[in-house]
Structure formats: structure tokens, C-alpha cells
Design a protein that fits this description.
The structure holds two protein chains of two kinds. A two-stranded antiparallel sheet of chain A has the order 1-2. Chain A is globular, with a radius of gyration of 20 Å. The termini of chain A are far apart. The C terminus of chain A is likely disordered. Helix content of chain A is 78%, strand content 2%. By secondary structure, chain A is mostly helical. Chain A has a domain of 210 residues. Chain B is an alpha/beta fold. Chain B contains nine helices and ten strands. Chain B is globular. The chains are: A mainly alpha, B alpha/beta.
Chain lengths: 305, 264
């Protein structure tokens, strides 16, 4: 059970990292995610069924996600459409694209297909239990992605990307085209989301065009949960926090799924729970601000006396 | 250095709200000149800066900087050689990022690559530059800029702009949002940098005595036009009273013109 939560949390943490980049770093609430997550899943599934090299598959999946993000950023940049609407447009279009990729089907099973996960498990079978292999492998994948992201955000380009969400005028003042930066940022984000979808499809044993519904909301909930864990302004800790947040979120969802029936809850209620979780997070962080303000004022009052 | 030829900007052209913010402005600023600009609200000072920096495009006319016609260049392209500081001290820096990250972004202008510039050498260079501000910022490289005061942030913006060695700097009432002490400090710092780096500068100010005391050329704007342009000894010898008088004189003439237009 614990392994399951950890593995799921790690797989989805790639998506949460993407959501973190758009929502928190770029300040570009991007809803493309709901479409690029299944995009990654269906491309991975179709390519694996065709017997394409798994590493090539991952590269193509990332590229497809990046392309989806580029479309959203271009709609936003060129047509001056609000970013939310641009994301919704791409997400809706992706639904049809995903069905096309699957060959006019809504889903595809992967149970008897060789996947990256099944190959890794096969290679270690007999030595390490299946669950642990899966866990170790996903820790490795997520660690590589996290380290690459950390490195990227320390480069000049990455730093400028960080400034974009905070102060677009400053980025322009420094002679950088903010439109290009948005394409890069939203592209990387959706590339990660597609990768997450690709691993999710292998883990679940199928790809489904509807598997993206609510992805962005669960990603946001994970980001917010992570933010309660600790505070920092270092990117390495921020990305770590996102991964922890994703695991904790999956843990909460697990509890909801397995113990929810005591209060007559079904798996269908999980999306409602996710939404409520976000609302609770918002309420807590809002009151936290108030609380710290109150404390400050009390201190000031003390000085005045 | 910079030539504006019959520059005009009309907002909401062809509607009842038509507003001629800049009307047929011709201006040539030479290398090393420090121009102060005064004028009442709505005179077109900020619009003029917007047109020079590329934040807005003119309805008619040409903007030439360093012999290059930049009329159609977007703001980010012009920003490489035009530095601009706003009244709002928060606009120049990214508050959720550390001081050293902010300075890394600013230390060269233009397209950024996948290079990691921030190293010990650059950090020491930043510390050196920051220590000249005498604010103790050199010991706060890892602090978020959002923790600094308005004066500190404006001083930092100024420093960051100077480090990128712009050809022209535009100062848009950059001391107006600060308390008198900080405003004077920023003004002194501006002057120091302009002299040290021989910058060409244009400064909008609402403070007439500052406009007279600083710089070597003074422009007065009204109704989207430059109505007074003095430099050299004429500017040095001018006083607040003389300026007010001239302003009234020109305005009266305007008024007279209006009356002439209205009477049959």
C-alpha cells in the first residue's frame, strides 16, 4: 500500500512539477494540462504497441507535450487571449487529437505490451520485489527530472523565466522577449505533464482519452499541499516540496478511496474531495497571512507602549 | 544620439474620445546630454517616454536612436540600449527572487542562453558594486528583493540598469514614490552614475527646482508639445519664477490663440 502511494505520487509528481512551473513560476494558469496528460499517455501507448524503443518514445512524448504547450502560448501571445482561455482551447482540441492518435478509439490496453516499467520489473525479478523495483525506478526518473529542472532554473534563461511570473516589465526592460519565454516555460511544463501521462499509462496498464479530466486541479492541490510542508526561496527545495506534495496528495486520495466507504464515499467523490482540499488549503493560507499580520501588529503595539 | 522627427501619438483616433497625447514633436538629444523634462499632468511626458522606449508605437513620425531607425522595434529590442526606470520602485526588480539572481538577469541585456553565469567571480563583482551604494546590500545577496525598502529597490534598479551600460536612460519621475530623504539619495546616485558612466539621460520630474538644478538642458511640455527648450547658460541662470512666468506667458498665448479660433 505504501509503495503504491509512493509510486503513484512519484509518477504524478512529474505532472505536478509542470503545474508548479506554470502556476507558480510563470504565473500562467495553464489548463492545457488536462489535455497534454492523456496526450502523453496515448502517444506512449501507441508507440509501445508499435514496438518503438522506449527511450525514443519518451523523447517523442516530451516533444508532443512541448508542442501542445507551444500552441497554448502562441494563442495567448499572438491573439492576446487570456491564458486560461488559451489553455482551455488547446485542451479541448487535444481531446480530438488524442482520439485520432489512438486510431478513432477512446482507449488502448497495455497489459500484454512490453513497457518501460514491465521491462525494468522483468530485469530485476527474483532479486528485488516488484513493488520496490517500481519504486526505485520511479525515484530514479523523478530525481533525474528534478535535477535537470534545478539546473535549468539556475541558468540565465531559467532565472529570467523565474522573473517573468513575478515582473514581466522587468523581463522586457532586460531586453528579453516575454513571448518567447512563455513558449519555453509552458512548453517545458506540458512536456513534463505528457511524460507523467506516459508513465501513468504504463503503470495503469492502459491509455484512455478521458484520463486527463481533473489533472490540473489535482496538480494544483498537490502544489498547495507541498507549500504547507516548508518555506524556501531555493529552487531545489521548491521542486522537492512539489514532489512531497504530490506524494501526500496521493496518500490522502488513497485514504479517501479505501476508508471513504465508512462515510458512504465512492471513488466518484474523489474529484469533489480534491476541490474541497484546494479550498481548505486556500482558507488556511489566507488565515495564515492574517495571523502573521496580527502578530506583527501586536509586536508594533508593544513597542508603542 | 536620439532623433525624434514629427512624432505624434493619437489615442482613440476618430472617436469622440480622440486624444492627441503627442503632437508633432521634433527633438534631438546629443550624446552625454542630461535633459530634464517638466510639464503639468497630461502634458505627454510619459507618452513621450513610452514612444522612445517602444512601449507604444507612434501614430506618425520616426524614432532614431544611434542612427538606427527603431520606430517599429518592440520594447524588448530597444531595451538593450535604452534603460528605463519607473516611478514605482517594484517595477525594476523581481521581488520573489534573490538579490544575486536579480543582478544576474540584469548584468547583460538581451537574449539569455543556457549558460550559468552566476559564479564566485560575478558574485564578488556584485558585492563590489553593491557596497558603493552604502546600504549594506552586499551582505544580503541571498535575500529576496521583496524584503528591501522602496529606496533600496530603486537604488538597486538604478545600479542594475547602469551595469548593463545603456546608451540612453529614461527616468520617469523615479524619485516621486519615495520619502524626501530617499528621493534625494536616489537623485544623488543618479547624478553620480550619469557623470561616472557619461550616460545620456532624460528625466521627467514634477520638482521644478530639481529640473533647474540637474542636467544641462530643460524641456517644458504642454498639450503634447515641447513649448520650451533651454540649455547652457540660459538654463543655468533660470529660476523657478522665470519658468513659471514663461509657462504663463506661453499658456496665455495659447489661450489667446484659442480665443482667436473661437471668435469669428
Amino acid at each position: 500500500m505504501l509503495e503504491g502511494i509512493l509510486v503513484e505520487g512519484l509518477i504524478y509528481s512529474l505532472m505536478v512539477l509542470g503545474v508548479f512551473i506554470t502556476f507558480r513560476i510563470l504565473d500562467f494558469p495553464d489548463l492545457t494540462v488536462d489535455g497534454s496528460f492523456p496526450l502523453g499517455a496515448v502517444i506512449m501507448a501507441v508507440l509501445l504497441v508499435k514496438g518503438v524503443n522506449p527511450l525514443v518514445c519518451l523523447v517523442l512524448v516530451f516533444a508532443a507535450g512541448f508542442a501542445a504547450g507551444t500552441v497554448t502560448a502562441l494563442i495567448h501571445n499572438k491573439l492576446k487571449v487570456p491564458n486560461l482561455l488559451a489553455g482551455i482551447l488547446t485542451m479541448t482540441m487535444l481531446y480530438s487529437v488524442n482520439i485520432r492518435i489512438l486510431g478513432n478509439r477512446a482507449n488502448i490496453p497495455l497489459l500484454r505490451t512490453k513497457t518501460i516499467l514491465s521491462q525494468v520489473i522483468g530485469a530485476a525479478s527474483g532479486i528485488i520485489p516488484e513493488g520496490i523495483t517500481l519504486l526505485l525506478f520511479m525515484i530514479f526518473v523523478v530525481a533525474v527530472v528534478k535535477l535537470l529542472l534545478d539546473l535549468f532554473f539556475h541558468t540565465d534563461l531559467g532565472l529570467t523565466l523565474g522573473a517573468l511570473g513575478c515582473n514581466e516589465q522587468m523581463v522586457i526592460t532586460q531586453g528579453v522577449n516575454p513571448e518567447g519565454l512563455k513558449i519555453i516555460g509552458v512548453g517545458i511544463s506540458n512536456g513534463l505533464v505528457a511524460l507523467s501521462g506516459a508513465f501513468a499509462a504504463q503503470y495503469l496498464g492502459f491509455a484512455d482519452v478521458n484520463m486527463g479530466i481533473g489533472t490540473v486541479v489535482s496538480g494544483l492541490a498537490s502544489v498547495m499541499i507541498g507549500e504547507f510542508l516548508f518555506q524556501s526561496n531555493k529552487i531545489a527545495l521548491l521542486t522537492l516540496r512539489v514532489i512531497f506534495g504530490s506524494i501526500v496528495f496521493k496518500g490522502i486520495m488513497y485514504l479517501g478511496r479505501y476508508y471513504g466507504y465508512y462515510i458512504k464515499m465512492t471513488p466518484n467523490d474523489l474529484k469533489l474531495i480534491t476541490g474541497i482540499l484546494i479550498i481548505i488549503s486556500l482558507i488556511i493560507s489566507k488565515n495564515r497571512e492574517k495571523l502573521s499580520l496580527l502578530r506583527k501588529n501586536n509586536k508594533k503595539g508593544g513597542v508603542m507602549k | 544620439m536620439i532623433q525624434l522627427t514629427s512624432l505624434s501619438k493619437v489615442f482613440n483616433e476618430g472617436t469622440v474620445n480622440e486624444n492627441r497625447a503627442i503632437h508633432n514633436v521634433n527633438l534631438s538629444v546629443e550624446d552625454g546630454e542630461f535633459v530634464t523634462i517638466i510639464g503639468s499632468n497630461g502634458a505627454g511626458k510619459t507618452t513621450l517616454f513610452n514612444l522612445i522606449s517602444g512601449n507604444m508605437f507612434p501614430s506618425a513620425g520616426k524614432v532614431v536612436i544611434n542612427g538606427r531607425d527603431v520606430t517599429k522595434d518592440p520594447e524588448y529590442k530597444r531595451a538593450v540600449y535604452v534603460g528605463r526606470i519607473f516611478q514605482n520602485p517594484t517595477l525594476g526588480t523581481a521581488e520573489t527572487m534573490t538579490l544575486e539572481d536579480n543582478m544576474t538577469i540584469a548584468h547583460y541585456k538581451g537574449c539569455k542562453g543556457l549558460k550559468k553565469s552566476l559564479n564566485r567571480k560575478l558574485r564578488n563583482y556584485f558585492k563590489e558594486q553593491l557596497s558603493e551604494l552604502n546600504m549594506g546590500l552586499e551582505n544580503r545577496l541571498k535575500d529576496n528583493v521583496g524584503l528591501f525598502s522602496g529606496g533600496q529597490r530603486q537604488a538597486l534598479t538604478l545600479l542594475m540598469m547602469v551595469l548593463s551600460k545603456p546608451d540612453l536612460i529614461l527616468l520617469d519621475e523615479h524619485t516621486a514614490a519615495l520619502d524626501p530623504g530617499n528621493a534625494q539619495m536616489i537623485l544623488d546616485l543618479t547624478l553620480k552614475y550619469i557623470n561616472e558612466y557619461r550616460l545620456t539621460a532624460m528625466m521627467i520630474t514634477h520638482n521644478m527646482s530639481n529640473a533647474i538644478a540637474y542636467g544641462n538642458r530643460l524641456l517644458m511640455m504642454d498639450g503634447g508639445e515641447i513649448i520650451l527648450d533651454i540649455s547652457g547658460t540660459e538654463k543655468q541662470n533660470t529660476t523657478k519664477e522665470v519658468l513659471v512666468e514663461k509657462f504663463a506667458e506661453i499658456r496665455k498665448k495659447n489661450l489667446a490663440n484659442d480665443e482667436l479660433l473661437l471668435s469669428p
